[in-house]
Amino acid sequence: MATNNKSNFPLTASITAQTFKESIIKHLNATHGTDINKATNRSWWDAVTSALNEHVHSSLSQTQRTYFENDTRAVHYFSLEFLMGRLTGNNLHNLGLYDVAKQALNELNVDITELVDEEEDMALGNGGLGRLAACFIDSLATMHLPAVGYGIHYEHGLFRQEFQDGHQIERPDSWREYGNPFEICRPESIQEVPVYGYVETKFDDNGGISKVWHPGRVIKGVPWDVPIVGYKGTNVNILRLWESRASDFFNWDVFNAGGYHDAHKENVEAETVSKVLYPNDDTDAGKELRLMQQYFFSACSLKDIIKRYQRVHNDDWSHFSTQVAVQLNDTHPAIAIPELLRILVDEYGQDWDYAWTICRETFSYTNHTLLPEALEKWSVRLFEKLLPRHLEIIYEINQRFLATEVEAKWPGNDLVKSKLSIIEEGNERMVRMGNLSVIGSNKVNGVAEVHSALVKTDLFPEFDALWPEKLTNVTNGVTPRRWLKACNPSLSDLIDRTVGDQWPTNLELLRELDKSADDLAFQKEFMAIKHDNKVELAKVIKELTNVEVDPSAIFDIQIKRLHEYKRQHLNLLHIMALYRRLLQNPDYDMHPRVFIFGAKAAPGYALAKDIIYAINKVADKVNNDPRINNKLKVVFLPNYRVSLAEKMIPAADVSEQISTAGKEASGTGNMKLALNGAITIGTLDGANIEIAEEVGIDNVVIFGLTVDEVKAVNKAGYSPWDYYYGNPEIKAVLDWFETDYFTPGKPGELASIKHSLLEGGDPYLCLADFDGYSKAHQQINTKYTDKRGWAKSAILNTAYMGKFNSDRSIQDYVDRIWKLKPYPVKNA
Ligand code: 26W
Q1: Is the pLDDT of residue 1 over 50?
Q2: Domain annotation covers residue 501
Q3: Catalytic residue at 530?
């Protein structure tokens, strides 16, 4: 095992296994009051994190001092979700202390891999959007860029998933039940946020109008800072998460009116605001508490930024947008736009136009989905109740925008105005957070080329016509520190030995691997590492599901949230077709295959939960059917999350990226799997297209309708029945859902899936793509039997993933949107 070359990590170069061991023991005793012979894995973990935090916290304060002394321009990443996973391993790796810690613990008879399993995932996110935010703040710190992540300190993150008789059961996630060593409470930076109440219009003696908001309640925001350790630990940035508490504000007006209970209870209780993450991915729940969450953290964060700004610039706002960039991670924090305007105009008496210019120069917005049901719209009624002053401000923004910029380009054109308006008219008037975000931002980006093109042509065509420079693209990326260096150490060592060890901060260096792609010895070593990772995953599968899988089988993995557009049910249809072929002909020529799933469904998404149930029922049947002699296995690992992904991804042979073209904005799992040498079977959707461009069409297996073909099919009118009656295999498999074959004694329990694909109109064109998908899998089968060909493709996938480094994404944001300068900290 190659140890980290110390020159890479100047900060910790002097730390040896011996000194680190002493530090661990010191903290075990002095910090955690535990004696060696009574220590459990939990207390060893406590001790290691304390020893580790010594280094983290010193770099943290030096970093913050450097930024303050240089009065740096900084980006503030506003996100309702940060899907961080575990931090122990990541921070040890980023500080170059992992091998030292491993050795120190070995000498204490503690296995570091068991120890890191003590840590609960920090699952403060649903899926792609939340994990992207986590990768981005890792890159910002690694690239020495002044940045702060702002979000909510949820007491409960994404629910824990259990399976009961194959059904998804949700359990609360109490991630910090026994405390969390990677957060620091900052009571000195508490903020107070007004909500509810009414607005008074005041006229001063020279006819000037001013607005006074009389809030019905005030919520206290307590910040928790999570240090974000850049690779090599030079810079340690902050992730500031707000916890809501009741403030000692009391609404005497209501009380004096004799409404004690109301004065106290009034609507959403303060504490509940940061209680739990909404588990919906891509479907807007439109709940009052959700809007309250969005406003609470946006308002706390803006007050925090302004407090930091005024330390240097007081009430001179002329430097604000040159010092402060705010990135809106989707529309979820869009309320920050009218909030900054309110603060500048109402609280600091700034002129509207001046304040509006500052807002537009400060904010930029990233769109992550085109799904209509995911585009946030809030009822005017709810806004009136919760944020009466913001509603007034939104009306003003809208009126001025339509009367000036829109009227200028489309004089008297009410149709265009109704499309561009922030307010959606109708019996329930709605506030369109997407339109507000575009109007209030200087830049708007999609997250992959095809997606950003569809944002221009389908989502915001009029805005694109109005501001051709505003809409741009920044293709997503993933951090190679967590998603290769830390999760696949044996492959990382091979890469170190082949191209040197600078690739974690310059992923383009992986390209050099292509020189060894045809080399038999290198192929053998590369595939041996893949095999060892599969052996490890097979142990995890046995432990979690009691299913035995053969590591020499093809590990075919689909891991992502459960959603119809991601088409896990298309994967299931094909598995059932394979099973049927094997039952009809046990000698059916296919290399043994293990289909592995990981996916959570939003608790309210019934069909998604039915698909999970169906996969589990089919798995039970297939895995226990001796007639197919282990040629086919189906595994659904429960509670898919970041730390489980880190165990699954290094063991993948095939990466399932089979969404209906035009629906998956980018995908990031596709990048992580290809980076770890998996071959993608996928549609030309999201970033799959750019992955195919980078790795070469011979090293991916593409199938299915393209974005334009999907549009054409829908335009022409799509009838899934044509495929049902046109393809006997499809008919047989769909009819199977009606029987009790997979649900003995309960015929039709799986019928909802068949109905969604026939009577339900198969909105995501599963049947239309079935044949192409089935043929693509035959291609995979053929390709896998050519061991050298497969090895070469696997190596080239890893080699050509340089583009999908989140550092490259961040550099694009820096060059095109944020215009930031790096400030590497000169550590004493
Ligand atoms: C209002 C409820 C809600 C919650 C989350 C709506 C939409 C979301 C997210 C935008 C959904 C999401 O995670 N989108 C994913 O974002 C990834 C990062 O850009 C992309 O790679 C995925 O393609 C996209 O589905």
Answers
A1: no
A2: no
A3: no
The C-alpha atoms of residue 209 and residue 349 are separated, in whole angstroms, by: 11
C-alpha–C-alpha distance, residues 703 and 688, integer Å: 11
pLDDT of residue 258: 62
Contacting residues for 26 by C-beta, under 8 A, at least 6 apart: 51
Using CA atoms of 377, 382, 383, 385 in order, give the dihedral in degrees to the nearest 10. -170
Indicate whether 364 pLDDT > 50.
yes
Please state the rounded mean pLDDT for residues 391-410. 98
Q: Is 561 a catalytic residue?
A: yes
Closest Cα to atom 15 of ligand 1: 128
Checking if the pLDDT of 411 tops 80, the result is yes
Please say if 743 is a catalytic residue: no
Q: What backbone phi and psi angles, to 5 degrees, belong to 446?
A: -95, 180
The residue nearest atom 2 of ligand 1, judged by CA position, is 284
In the DSSP assignment, the letter for residue 482 is I
State the pLDDT at residue 5.
Answer: 59
Residues flanking ligand 1, CB < 6 Å: 126-129, 132, 280-284, 330, 368-369, 374, 376, 447, 476, 664-668, 686
Read off the DSSP letter of residue 248.
Answer: S
Instruction: Report CA(336)–ligand 1 centroid distance (Å).
Output: 19
pLDDT for 252: 60
The span from the CA of 419 to the CA of 409, in Å, is 14
Q: Cα(213)–Cα(749) distance, rounded to whole angstroms? A: 55
Q: Is residue 160 part of a domain?
A: no
Distance 369 CA to ligand 1 centre (A): 6
- Tokens representing 628 are 């197919």
Q: Residue 190 falls within a domain, yes or no?
A: yes
Same domain, yes or no, for 102 and 189? no
pLDDT of residue 393: 98
Nearest CA to ligand 1 atom 11: 282
| This prediction's pTM | 0.97
Domain span holding position 57? 1-69+86-120
Write the single-letter amino acid at 396: E
Q: How far apart are CA 217 and CA 249, in angstroms?
A: 7
Give the residue from 772, 753, 673, 638 showing the smallest Cα distance to 713: 772
Give the per-residue pLDDT at 260: 53
Q: Whose CA is nearest to atom 8 of ligand 1?
A: 282
Contact 605, 562 (CB under 8 A): yes
Q: pLDDT at residue 250 above 60? A: no
Q: What is the pLDDT of residue 584?
A: 97
Determine which one of 93, 156, 456, 672 is catalytic.
Answer: 672
269: tokens are 């209780």
SS3 219: strand
Instruction: Round the average pLDDT of the chain to a whole number and report it.
Output: 96
- Give the SS3 label for residue 630: coil
More confident residue, 282 or 70: 70
Whether the per-residue pLDDT at 658 is higher than 50: the answer is: yes
Residue 576 has pLDDT above 90, yes or no: yes
* Residues shown for the chain: 828
pLDDT of residue 774: 98
Does residue 513 sit within a domain? Answer: no
Test site for ligand 1: of 369, 430, 445, most ligand atoms within 8 A of the Cβ: 369
75 and 92: one domain?
no
Ligand 1 centroid – CA 135 distance (Å)? 15
Q: What is the mean pLDDT of residues 752-779?
A: 98
pLDDT digits (tens, 9 = 90+) for 597-629: 999 999 999 999 999 999 999 999 999 999 998
Averaging pLDDT over each range in 200-209, 251-260, 522-531, which range is the top one? 522-531
Query: Which of 232, 561, 567, 574 is an active site residue?
Result: 561
**Residue nearest atom 22 of ligand 1, based on CA coordinates:** 667
Total domain count, the chain: 3
- Closest ligand 1 atom, residue 476 Cα: 19
Closest approach atom of ligand 1 to CA 376: 1
Q: Are residues 242 and 197 in the same domain?
A: yes
| Same-domain check for residues 332 and 249 | yes
What separation in Å is there between the alpha carbon of 128 and the centre of ligand 1? 6
